[in-house]
Fold this sequence. Notes:
2 domains; globular; about 375 residues; single chain; Arc Repressor Mutant, subunit A; alpha/beta; three-stranded antiparallel β-sheet; TIM Barrel; nine-stranded mixed β-sheet
Amino acid sequence: MSNMEKTGLYIHIPFCIRKCGYCDFVSFEGISSEKKEQYISAVLEDMKEYSGEEIDTIYVGGGTPTTLDIKQIKTLIDAVYDNFKVADNAEITIECNPKTADYEYFKSLKEYGFNRLSIGVQSLNDSHLSFLGRAHNSIEAISCINQAKLSGFENFSVDVMFGLPNQTIEDIKNTLEKLTDMSPSHISCYSLIIEPGTAFYEREVQPLDDDKERDMQSFIVEYLKDKGYNRYEISNFAKGNMYSKHNLKYWNLTPYIGVGIKASSYYGGYRYEKTDDFDAYINSPTEKKNLQKVTKDEEMSEFMFLGLRKADGVSFSEFYRKFGIEIEEKYNIKRNISLGLLIKKGDRLYLSERGIDVSNSVLCDFV
């Protein structure tokens, strides 16, 4: 199995200090220590099913994984090494909230083998942080990044949200200016989406209108480009080649295993997920929900609409090698090429800048 084909591992930790208004992930606040221990035991049982699998990325996400105490994190990462064949150069990422990790915590993470952080900053504007329901303020966010760097983390990503009600380009500029001064290796910028079932949906929060959001996104792209960040995926920017190797597995249709409540997997030609019921997961962590064999048509579709999220798009020759048919035979791409939304260059097909602006409608052609 080549490096490109090695599996990725995602571990879901569904605990947080406070549920944010926009969050539609499965997460819980106010969970007892006893319940957390039960959950970790269930995740360890979940891992055993994949014993011996080769992996080269590990991503611990949530929720807020750093709400666990550091000994619990060590228990999890030790279990990964006990159950999986972890590549020597594996990317090992953990998400953290600025409120829940400090210098000593970061030092311990380094000792346990973590080599990448994803820090949920979202904004350095305190009124926006309050609106989003974040537990931290801007000073705590800046302090968190500085402590991460002091502890030895050079590879870290920060999350930023845009398209908030009443947010201006000047607001986003101030946040990006302060963040880029701290030299994160990676920045993810996500627009506010109001999902059903969230607190924002119930409150009928209205995000920025589409034109203003598009202008804001264009500003972000140009600003980060000037600061040396390469847009390698619609929402993701990196210095040099400091991409999220784990997330590239999703966009490149590489197998990945998800353990934990509601975690999804694409493994052995099947897609499936775990239950979103806490007690049900504790009692039966290996039970698979919505198990579906991925058909050739579905795989072709996913290859296109996931791959086209990347700046370098998809390869015509790779599509033919995988599926035995040309892209043009399967999909009508001429219309979007003629409209200037898709670009065909050599062996690659990718979204134009205008195509990225209307990516949802372009990608729908492949669903």
